[in-house]
Every structure is written in C-alpha cells, then in structure tokens.
C-alpha cells in the first residue's frame, strides 16, 4: 500500500519551484547584461562567453552524479547543499573584481545547479504520487522554469540600469529563505545504511568526464568552430568515455545509472522530449534578444519587457494543461505545443530589419510561451511516470541531462548558422543590420529540424494517460506505456 501523501506537499512545491526559478533565471540573466559586465571587468569576448558556458558545462556534466547522490545521500541533503553552494557562488559573482573571480563563481553556480535540479524533480516525484496531482505540480514547475528563463531577460534588462551585480545579490535572500523552507517543509530522506549500495566510482568518473567533454565540445563551437582541434578533441574524448561508462554500468553491482531505467519507455520518451525542447528554447532566448537589440535597436530594458507576453501566456495556459493531460494524455498537449512553436518559427524566419512590436514580436513571444508550456510540463510528467522512491533522483537527472545537452547543441548549431550567414552576406556588401537579419533567419531555420523530430516523437511515443508510479519491488515488470 502506498504511503499517504504529505500534507505539506503544496508548500514543498512552492519551495522547490522557487529554487528552480533561481537556477533557470541565472542561466539566462547574463545574456542581456553581458556588455556591462564586459566593460566593467575588462573581459575579452571569449571570456564573456565563458561566463555563460561554464555554468552550462558544469551543470550538464555533473547532473548524473548529482541525481545519484540525491538517491544515495538524501534528496533534502542534496537540495540544501546545492542551495548553499549556489548562494555562495552568487555572493562571489556579485563581489567579483576581475574575470577570474566571476568565472570561478559561475563554475560554483553550475556545480550547485547540478545538485539542485535533480533533487527538485525527485522531491516533486515522491511528494506527489497521485498522477493527477503530479501533473498539476509539474504544471506549476514547468511554468516557473519557463518564466525563470523569460524573467532572466526582463531582470537582466532592468538590472543594467542599476548595476549588473544586483542580479546575483538578489539570490542571497532567496537562498536563505529556501534553506529555511527546505528544513521546515521537505521531509528528510535517508536511505537505511544496509540498503544503500556503494557509489559507483568508475561510473561516476566516466559519466562526469564524458558528459563534460560532450558539453564542452558543443559550447566551444561558438568560440572555435566545429573543426578546431579543441572541439574535435572534446568530441573524441566523449566518444571514448561515454561508451566506456555504458560498459561499466552493465557490469557494475551498484551502477550510477541502472540500465533497466533506459528500458522504460517513459524515461526514453521523456528524455527525448526534454532534449528536443531544450534544443529549441535556448536558441530562441539567444536569437530574439540579438535581433531586438542589434537590429531593431531596443535597449536592454525594452528587450526584457518584450518577453512579458511569454510570461503571461505561460501563466494563463499552465493551470489548464494538467486537466488536458488527465483527459487526453500527453500527446495532445505535446504535439499542440510543438505545432505552436512551429508557427512561431515561421514568423521568426520572416522578420525584417524593421518590425512592429504589436504585429511581429508580440505574436512571436506569446506563441513561444504557450508552446513551451505544452512541452515543458508534458515531458517531465511522461519521463517520471514510473519513477520510484529509490531512483527518482537518477531519473530526474537523466531528464535534466537531456535538456542541457539539447539546449547546448541547439544553440551551437543556430549560432554557427548565424555567424556563417552573416559573414557571407557582409562580405558581399550587404548592410550590417540586413546581414545579421539574414543570419538570424538561417539560425532560426535550423530549429525546424528539431520541431520535425519533436512532432514525430509526440505522435509515436506520447500516448495513453499518466500512470501511477510503480513500487520499487515491481521494477522488473513490463513498464506502463505512456
């Protein structure tokens, strides 16, 4: 018989959603305020790019280890440790007097995010065992995640007016509140010593180094290109380390990632959905500010405010979506969200050097919000449908890894297309704003491939209704189709 649901679970949802909001916001807030940071600290263009890249690199590289540690050491412990480290990293970033301290602070934040994100998802999975309630919880979580990325642009624009350091200082009181909330609300989860298998050291090492190499190879393409020795070396290392990790897991008595998880249809479908959604969302949050500021001449604050329709659309649609999932299953929500994102891309690839906010940017940002909600809420509902108390952290980490790799790869491909097309047009004598617009058209066009795969996934793999999580003893049973 399953345990009674925690009566404090809705307050737990508020706490962990706020933590996810902070993590998502800090992933995008630096994009808008980057020029001010560069001027004040004297960063090179490459150094400025690594202010964002270090966060993504360590976040993505350490997620599997963070998820496994959440299962082994306790979800609340990992959540608290991550929040404390994230807050410390924010203090270091806000007080940075040079590029070295800022880069170290962003690295610390990336490590902390890799602890927080899988802990957040696993806390939600175990706090909401009922499928209907879990869908509602993920509705809130997905909305907060999307709004965090959107508000990162808004807050970044506003912060530019008063000083970029406040973007990091604001995390400090939030971090203190989150620590207090977790101690008061989140139940301590400590696996009994006799039931806790030893950590798979070889698997942890090869997974972390392999994922870090893969993410490094992807993000370094914006600095060096796809054929640079550093890029090729990183991809080669990943090509050796990740298969070695898989081989270790198959023979390990206590694997970092139980191979049986990857035989669950729900985990595979949810992971692919996260990868494809990340591959679209991160490039959009990069390309749109570039277009608004460098082509249309928007100020950073005006650029941030242009994302208000994205936030409003998410807040309007999110409360309705769990009911749709309960009635029709995940396919309608995911395919519908993807279709709206395709419409958004059609508008984006047709923008010119002069565009009205009301007829062009408003539809783009509103469609982005509605479409992302459909995908961001549905994929974790599907991916965690069969997660158990024993593996919730690992399953959550797998979903997060997919999202991070998809986002990094989608951004790398889009940026490469933008750079090549813009350079080619400028070389033919095309005006700078027209050349950049042409580059943005090609960058956005690369995202249609992600959307085609996303539609295929939705029609073929997302079916049925969310299933109740199985008990740990039922691990060997045929997985419920989703």
Automatic annotation (TrEMBL):
- Name the source's superkingdom: Bacteria
Q: How does it sit in the membrane?
A: Multi-pass membrane protein
The family database entries (CDD domains) matched by this protein are listed as: MFS_MMR_MDR_like
Sorted UniProt keywords? Antibiotic resistance, Cell membrane, Membrane, Transmembrane, Transmembrane helix, Transport
PROSITE patterns listed in its UniProt record: MFS, SUGAR_TRANSPORT_1
UniProt feature coiled coil, ranges: none
- The transmembrane residues are 12-34, 46-66, 78-96, 108-126, 138-160, 166-187, 199-219, 225-246, 267-292, 304-321, 333-355, 361-385, 397-418, 438-459
Give the Major facilitator superfamily (MFS) profile domain ranges. Answer: 12-469
Under the heading InterPro entries, the entry gives:
EmrB-like (IPR004638), MFS (IPR011701), MFS_dom (IPR020846), MFS_trans_sf (IPR036259), Sugar_transporter_CS (IPR005829)
- Supply the Pfam families for this chain: MFS_1 (PF07690)
Protein name (database record): MFS transporter
Provenance organism: Kitasatospora terrestris
